Amino acid sequence: MKQLVFMCLLWLASMAAWAQNQELTGQVLDENGRPIIGATVVEKGTNNGTATGNDGRFSLRARTAQPRLAISSIGYTTQEVTPGQGATSVRLAVATTSLNAVQVVGSRSQNRSVTDTPSPVDIIDVREVTAKTGQLDVNQLLQFVAPSFNSNRQTGADGADHVDPASLRGLGPDQTLVLVNGKRWHQSALVNLFGSRGRGNTGTDLNTIPAASIERIEILRDGASAQYGSDAIAGVINIVLKTSTKELTANLNYGAYDARYRFDDQKFDGGNFNANLNYGVPIGEGGFVNATVDYNQRQHTQRANVPNTEGIQRRQYGDPKASNTSAYLNSKLPLSERVYAYVFGGLNLRKGEAYAYTRFPFSDSTYIQGDDTITVSVPNPRSNIQIYPNGFDPIITSTLTDGHGVAGLRGTFGGWDVDLSNGFGSNRFEYGVENTLNATLGAKSPTSFDAGGFQLQQNVVNLSLSRNYKGVLQGLNLALGSEYRREWYQIFAGEVGAYENYNRNLVLQPGEPEPNRPAGSQGFPGFQPRNEVKASRSNIGVYADAELDVTKALLLAGAVRFENYSDFGSTVTGKLATRVKVSETFSLRATASTGFRAPSLAQINFNTVFTNVVKGQAIDILLDRNDGPVSRALGIPALKQERSQSASVGFTGRAGSLLSFTVDGYFIRIKDRIVLTGTFDAEEDTVVLRPILQPRGVGQAQFFANAVSTDTWGIDVVLANTTGVGAGRLTTTLAANLNRLLVVGAAKTTPLLQGKEDIFFGTREQAFVKASAPPYKVNLTFDYNIGRFGALLRFVQFGGVRLYDYDDQINDYYARLTTDLALSYALTNKLRLSVGSSNLFDVYPKFFNPQLTENGGAWDAVQMGSNGRFLFAKLQARF
Question: Is the separation of the CB atoms in 506 and 515 below 8 Å?
C-alpha cells in the first residue's frame, strides 16, 4: 500500500513538473483572422506573461501544473483559455460598450473599438507602467508616459504644494474633464495661486485615486464639450478601475532621491514608501466586487543649498512631505440577464507639510543720512528673537479629505442600452500653520494655528441611452442623454489668533510710533470671517450624439449639447468628426468642435489675504472675490464662460506588421480666458489704488478676470513597434507632442486701470500661461522581455521654457534630457523584483537667483522636476 501511495505521489510530482515546464504556444487573431500585435498573454495567478509578436504568435513557459491563460488587448474583449498540448489559436471579439461596461472615451458607439474612433485616444496600461517605472502617483506616471500631459510638483506655492496641477496640450488644469468609469469626477476645492503651472485655475486631483486600483487610463486628446460637457476644452481623461477577480496583487515600493544639494551630509532624501493590495471576488454570472487599499508616504526633499547663485532667501526648499491613505471599490452586481447594478468610488485621506519662506531673526533697514545711504540690521518685525533666536521656517500643513461614490443601473430595454446613475463627490482642504507665530502677540504668541480652509462638493444625476441600428447603411449609433449637476463651495475661517491684529489692543504712550508688526500667522495668515462664503449653483445639460458608418470605409459623427447654468445662463456646443479608411492599414481622421467652460465656483468666490515674498521682502496681498468690494470699486466685471473653437486632422495606420503610427495636428482658440491678474501696488498708484486698498490693511491686490484670448497650435505623434529580438520581445515606442501657445491681443482692462495692461496681464503673467507645457516633449521607450528577465530604458526630452523673474529679467530654462532605467526579474512564479532609477544622470533645470524666482528657490517648477536622480525598488506579488 505504501509503495502504491509512493508511486502515485511520484507520478503526480512528475506530471506537475512536466506541466510547469511545458512550452505554451499559440496565435491571437481578431474576428477577421488578422494577427493582433502586442496582445497581452498572462498565466493567471502568477506574474508570468508575454505579448504577441508581429504575427500575433506567442510562446510562454508554464509555471503552474494546470495553466490558464488570460489574453487581452485594448479594444477587444478579454478571453481566458486552458491550453492543451501544442498550439492554441484564440480569436478575440471587438469590445463594445454594451453590458460589458467597457468605457472608451471619444465614441458612444456600441460597436466601435478604440482603434476606430475618429478622435485620437491614448490607452495607458497602468499595470505595465507601474511595474517598470519609479513613479508611484497618477500625475507623475502620466507626466512621463503621455507627451501631451504635463504636471509638476511645486514648493513654496501654498496649496499647490499639496495638490499637483496637471494639464493637457498646454491648457489649464480646469480645461480638462476627468471621468472615472465614464462618469464625471469632482474637482479639487483648491485655486492655484503660485508656481509656474495652473495659476488661477482649479482642477481635479488625480493623486487621490491610487494607481493600484486602476486598470487603464484613456486620454482623449480632442475638444469634447459637446460630448461630455463643460471642462472638456483640452480633452478628457477617463480612469477605468480594475475588474479582475480571484487574483490577489500586492506591491511594496520604496525609493529616494540623490541629495547632493543639501546643507548636511545626508546622501539621500525624499524617501517614498508605497504599499497596496488589490483583490476581486466574482458575484453571480459576470459580476464582481474589486477592492483596493493603498498607503503612500513621501518625505521632504531639501534643495536650498544650490551653488553659484546670488543669494538664499529660504533655508528649506524642496518637495513637501505627504501621506496618503486610500480605499477604492469597483463592482458590478447582476440583477437579471439584461440588467445589472454598479457601485464604485473611494475615499482618500492626505496629510501634508510644506515649508514656507524663512523668517530670519533680523532684516536690513535703510535710511539716508546726509549724502550717505545707511543700512543697519534691525529685528525682523515678522519674527521674535525670544521665541526663535535664529529665526524660523513656517510649515503649512494640510488635511485633505476627498471622496466620491457612484451608484447606478444599466440594462437593455427595447433595443436601447440604458444607464441611470447618481454620483456624489467632495473635496475638503483644511490648512494649519506650525513652527510659526503671530508677531502682534510678541513673545506670548502660540506657535501653531488652525488657518481654516475650503470645500467643494458635487452631485451628478446622469441618464444616457444608446442604440445601434445595423440596418441603416453600414450601421448607425444614436446616443441621447441628460445630466443634472449641483455644486456647493464654501470657505471657512480659522481660529482668531491665525488672522487677528493684536496691535489694535496696545495702549500707546503719547508720541510712541505705531508698531509695524504684521498680523496673522506667518507663512499663511489664515482665512477670516470676512472671507467666509457659501455658494451653490445647478446645471442641466441635454445632448444628442450620432455616428454613421456610411460605408465600411467612411464614418461620419456629430454631437450637440445644450447646457443651462443657474448663475450665468445657457450655451450650445457642437462637434463634427469623420474617419476615412483608405485601406485596411491606413485611415484619415478629422474633427471640428466648439466648447465652453464655466468659471468654477472657486474662481468666482475665492478671496483671502496671503503673504508673498518678493526680492526677500514679505508683502501681504489681497485676492478679492470677483464681486467683492475692491473688485467692484475697480470695475472688475463678473466672470463669464470661456468659449473655444478647435479642430484636428490626422492619420493612423501600420506599416506591414512591424510599425503602427498615429499623427494628429490640432488648433484650439479660447476666447475670454479666465486668469489671475498681476499684482497692483497701492504705493505705485496713490490716486486710484491707495484709497481703495489702504482701509483693508493691504498694500497690494489682484483679481480673477476674463483677461485674454489664446491660440494653441500643436501636433501629437505616436509610433510603436513590437518585434522579436533573440528569444525575447522588444517593444519600442516613440511619442511626441509639439505645442505652441500664443496670447492674442492686449489684456482687457477696466476704465480705472487703463494704462496698466502690463500689470493686469503683462509679459510675466503671460509667460506663466505659456509655460503650462514645454514647446515639445519627446518620449522614446525600449521595453525588452526574455523569460523571467525584463528591462526598460526610457529617454524623455523636455523642451525649454521662458519665464520672467521679479526684476522682469528673462529666465530661460533650456531643454533637458532625462533617462530612466528599470530592470526586473521573476524571483518565483508569484514574485517579481524591479530595481532602477528615474533621471539616472541626475539632471536639473538651469539655476537662477533665488531672490527673484517665483518660489524662492534656484529654479521654478518647470519641465522634469527639481529633485534629481531617484533610485527605487519594487516587490510585486500576484496570487
Answer: yes
Q: What is the pLDDT of residue 105?
A: 55
In whole angstroms, what is the distance from residue 342 CA to residue 711 CA?
A: 41
Grid cell in block for residue 627: 464681486
How far is C-alpha 308 from the chain's CA centre? 34
The C-alpha cell 480659522 sits at 494
What letter does residue 257 receive in the DSSP assignment?
E
* 260-318 pLDDT per residue, tens: 887 777 889 999 999 999 999 999 988 999 999 999 999 999 888 776 555 566 888 88
Sign of CA dihedral 332, 333, 335, 337: positive
CA distance 873 to 837: 9
395 φ, ψ (degrees, to nearest 5): -115, 120
CATH architecture of 2-91: Sandwich (2.60)
What residue spans define the domains of the chain?
2-91, 114-358+393-878, 359-392
Beta bridge partners of 345: 329, 405
Confidence check: pLDDT of 405 > 90: yes
Assigned C-alpha cell, 195: 508656481
Fold held by 114-358+393-878: Maltoporin; Chain A (2.40.170)
- Residue 124, classified by CB atoms within 10 Å of its CB into exposed (0-12), middle (13-18) or buried (19+), is buried
Q: Which uninterrupted H or E stretch holds 557?
A: strand 554-565
Q: Are 71 and 52 in contact (CB under 8 A)?
A: no
Instruction: For residue 677, give the 3-state DSSP assignment.
Output: coil
Rounded to whole angstroms, the Cα distance separating 37 from 27 reads: 10
Which grid coordinates are listed for 160?
Answer: 499647490
pLDDT tens-place string over residues 614-669: 766 777 788 899 988 888 888 889 999 999 999 999 998 887 666 888 899 999 99
Q: Is 343 helix (H, G, I), strand (E, B) or coil?
A: strand
Q: Print burial letters for 245-260: b (CB count within 10 Å at least 16), e (below 16).
A: eebebbbebbbbbbbe
pLDDT the model gives residue 292: 97
Task: Say if residues 109 and 95 touch (Cβ distance below 8 Å).
Answer: no
Q: Please, which residues bridge with residue 289 across strands? A: 281, 331
Report the alpha-carbon distance of residue 523 to residue 439 in Å, rounded: 12
Which string of b and e fits 146-158 if b means at least 16 CB within 10 Å?
bbbbbbbbbbbbb
- Whether 114-358+393-878 and 2-91 are alike in CATH topology: the answer is no
Sign of CA dihedral 855, 860, 862, 866: negative
